Amino acid sequence: MQFELKDVSFSYQPDAKEPKYAVHHVSFSVEKGEFLAIIGHTGSGKSTLIQFLDGLLKPTSGKVFFNGTEITAKGYQYSNLRRLVGLVFQYPEHQLFETTVLKDVCYGPKNMGLDKEEQQARAIRALKAVRFPEDSYEKSPFDLSGGEKRRVAIAGVLAMEPECLILDEPTAGLDPHGREDILSMCRELQGSGITVILVSHSMDDVAEFAERILVMDSGELKYDGAPKEVFRHVDALEGIGLSAPETVYLMRELKKRGYDVPEVVLNTEEAKEILLDIFKK
């Protein structure tokens, strides 16, 4: 087990007579190498939750463990944790600032006190991991496309060689090709052994790429399960401002029309095969 959260709550005004909680009595664990998605409408507690994982926020109550060590304990040193847990905020390209791509990705290893040779070696490995073209390493980050900037920003976190990568809306503002590219890259990183935690508003993205989904609503954990299980609760999800993937709605409509189809289909290729089979009949 990599992360474990035990009954965590957080309020920005804990001493108020009736404190309002951004996160309230949430418990779950994350296994090493897992691809986990966290979904919920704006204000549901998603972003607060992921900030517990690298110590940017400390719960008002409850405990958080990383690799069996309580990181919420008094006196815990967060510097090592933040090298092992990489957090990529929404629109991370706004944090790019160096004159070249390679220098920008070297920044994290440089801050770790590594020598120039190791800085560059880590930066190059990270850029290769995000499939960034080698002939663009010396380009200015500001001359890149949106998707390229996003990959460079993620490479800057990967260069610190974290065990876990947390991404808050990594596909925001990208076109469909850019979204697919970033998410496929995340799947490849997971395949290399890195734990991936994805916060997203896109139900289609999490259905296709995540192995497990947490659903947050008003600071509480409503569902925790595999995508097919979570997306069976279409009406309940809609009741908290969410939706299901388009393929789920398609199957529901086909069922209403009398076709014998699965209740939940998440993969577009599987949906395509079902449609072709119907048309053949």
Q: Identify the CATH class of the largest domain.
A: Alpha Beta
The coarse overall form would be: globular
Please describe the biggest sheet, giving its number of strands, its sense, and whether it closes into a barrel: 6 strands, mixed
> How many distinct domains?
2
- Major sheet: arrangement of strands: 6-7-8-3-9-10
CATH topology of the largest domain: Rossmann fold
- Count of extended strands: 10
Report helical residue fraction: 25-40%
Strand-residue proportion: 15-25%
Give the end-to-end Cα distance, rounded to a whole number of Å.
Answer: 48 Å
CA gyration radius, whole angstroms:
21 Å
Structural class, judged by helices and strands? Answer: alpha/beta
CATH superfamily placement of the largest domain: P-loop containing nucleotide triphosphate hydrolases
Task: Give the CATH architecture of the largest domain.
Answer: 3-Layer(aba) Sandwich
How many distinct helices? 11
H and E order: EEEHEEHEHHHEHEHEEHHHH
Low-pLDDT stretches: none
Average pLDDT, all residues? 93
